[in-house]
Amino acid sequence: MNETVEIVVGVGVLVAVYILTRHFHSWRFSRTYVLIINDLKKKGAVNPASAVELPYAKKKMLRIGTRDYRPKALEHLAMKQIVGVTATGRYYLVVNPEDLPMAQ
Question: At how many degrees (to 10) do helices 3-43 and 70-79 cross?
Fold first, then answer.
């Protein structure tokens, strides 16, 4: 095979791997969003008075195993004002879960 063709194929494979990993991470985040919303809905945390503590809200100092998407996804949901945070660090749903397109 020509050296130029090998370089082009190698760069193409690297680009494909990069795109696939980005899609994989976005898929995992969207699944984690649904998991968090369903968890809050199941616990009945729909206003600040009924807010609950979530054990996965804080990042762990010692990371062993696979990546945990829940703390970062919870932070994104709070930034988008889908999930509210009380002053004591408890979480609740701000919007009605049935209005969300991803919650099922």
Answer: 70
- pTM for this prediction: 0.74
| Domain spanning 3-99, CATH class | mainly alpha
Tell me the C-alpha distance between 56 and 78, whole Å. Answer: 14
Q: Which of 16, 25, 40, 33 is nearest to 75 (CA)?
A: 33
Tens of pLDDT, residues 34-87: 999 999 989 988 888 888 998 887 777 776 767 788 888 998 898 888 898 898
Quote the CA–CA distance of 95 and 82 in Å, as a whole number: 6
Please tell me whether residue 16 adopts helix, strand or coil conformation.
helix
